[in-house]
């Protein structure tokens, strides 16, 4: 079993920054990939950013140059640094990982960007 707990969401003005954290526990190791998804009201969940065990990153076009995904393998924690936030970034952000072909999700953290 793997547990993921997100934190760091909140209300911020457009142009501001937030840093999300994803603390992982259970049967997880530094070899497992991590990713951040988001889901806005009335929309499908979408991939925001992903990072492999080796540190290779991938970003949605809408966040390139503004968001940075990282991980601290010693702490089993992933991060999403979000800068230059826009109102369209408003969504619930979820952490995700795969362990032995089984996907796990966190409970999500709300990010609201006011104009």
How do the strands and helices of this protein lay out in sequence?
Blueprint: E1 2-7, E2 10-13, E3 18-26, E4 34-39, E5 46-51, E6 57-59, E7 67-72, E8 77-82, E9 91-99, E10 102-105, E11 109-114
Parallel strand pairs: 2-11
Antiparallel strand pairs: 1-3, 3-8, 4-5, 4-9, 5-6, 7-8, 9-10, 9-11
Structural description of this entry:
- The chain is mainly beta.
- Helices cover 0% and strands 57% of the residues.
- The strands form two sheets. Strands 2, 4, 5, 6, 9, 10 and 11 form a seven-stranded mixed sheet that branches.
- β9 (91-99) and β10 form a beta hairpin.
- The chain is globular and about 40 Å long.
Summarize the structure.
The chain has 115 residues and is mainly β.
Structural class: mainly beta
Percent strand: over 45%
Q: Extract low-pLDDT stretches.
A: none
The description of the largest β-sheet is:
7 strands, mixed
Main features:
single chain, 115 residues, four-stranded antiparallel β-sheet, globular
